[in-house]
Amino acid sequence: MYSWTRFYFRLPIFLRLFLTVIVFMVFFGALIHFIEPQHFPTIFDGIWWAFVTGSTVGYGDYVPLSNAGRIIGILLILAGGGLVTFYMATLSAGTIKHEKDLSTGKVAFKGKGHIILVGWNERTRQLIEIMQQHNDPEDIVLIDRTMRELPYNQYPVHFIRGDVSDDETLHKANISYAKEILITADPSMREEQADQVVILAIVAMKGLNPELKIIAEILTEKHSVNARRAGATTVIRSNDFMSALFYHELHRNDPVKPFELLLEIMTEQQFHELDPPDTLVGKQFKEALIHYASDKETLVGIIRDEQLKLNLYSDAIIEKSDRLVVLTPLSQ
């Protein structure tokens, strides 16, 4: 008996109230059936009457006629009506609280195969919009420690508020079943401090999921090696990338704007790393260009000895150990 009581009180309040309402209505339904069997031929008829009366709907298809039956009806209205009303009020309040908890990042994510984004900033906001435009099927979990609220109905993400280096936060994001993680540097911190936070996050994540693919944004050159040592699969040095774009823009005299062109390429196409097919091993780079151009793809360069090589000579030979970098339209 004690174990059932303990089990009952450990249930969520919605379920406890629901079970209480069911037991309450079944009891009154069975009672009215035994008191007035001529007017309530079956127990189900009595239960139907109890639900209709207790919820104050009152269809009038079943009515107790005896004094004892009417007394039961009075007790049902007094007790059952209040119980049903309390259940509905609790259900409504719980729904509102759950929505509030979702917006404030308190609800754990239960899905699998999702993508985790760390840090709420303009970069992640635009990335979410791009993924939404291209109908990416993966669920997105956003972890951020500074944002107090993210309206869940405005962005298609599951928000978790907390420190990304904290195990509790990572467990809430269900990191053990995540597909990959993108860690962005915190723009409110000094660059070196932001890199240290990213590296600490990588260590924490790898400790919980050693096989996890982690893409990390690093701002300073000296910490890129440390990020790889910590376990980052890919390190993006955004400062170096943007500095190169700034330099070319400063020395460009024609009206073409490379920033806009680059953004258009990144939003409409995606990069792939591929092993060279056997038919291209030992062939010249220009032959590979023609091979991928026939499929409306663009061969950009190769990765050899962990270094990206662009603008190769047309007679450069493709080796079996190379990785081909190919630009593919997202619609394919």
Total number of beta strands = 10
Q: What's the end-to-end separation, in Å?
A: 62 Å
Number of domains: 3
The percentage helix is: 40-55%
Mean pLDDT: 80
Commentary on this structure:
The protein is α/β, with parallel strands linked by helices. It folds into 3 domains: 2-102, Helix Hairpins, CATH 1.10.287; 115-242, Rossmann fold (3-Layer(aba) Sandwich), CATH 3.40.50; 268-329, Regulator of K+ conductance, C-terminal domain (Alpha-Beta Plaits, 2-Layer Sandwich), CATH 3.30.70. Helix content is 48%, strand content 15%. It has helices spanning 2-10, 13-35, 43-54, 67-103, 122-133, 167-172, 191-208, 222-230, 238-250, 258-268, 285-293; strands spanning 115-118, 140-144, 158-161, 180-183, 213-218, 234-237, 269-274, 298-304, 307-310, 323-329. A 6-stranded parallel beta sheet has the order 3-2-1-4-5-6. It has a 4-stranded antiparallel beta sheet with strand order 7-10-8-9. Helix 2 (13-35) packs across helix 3. The model has no long low-confidence stretch (mean pLDDT 80).
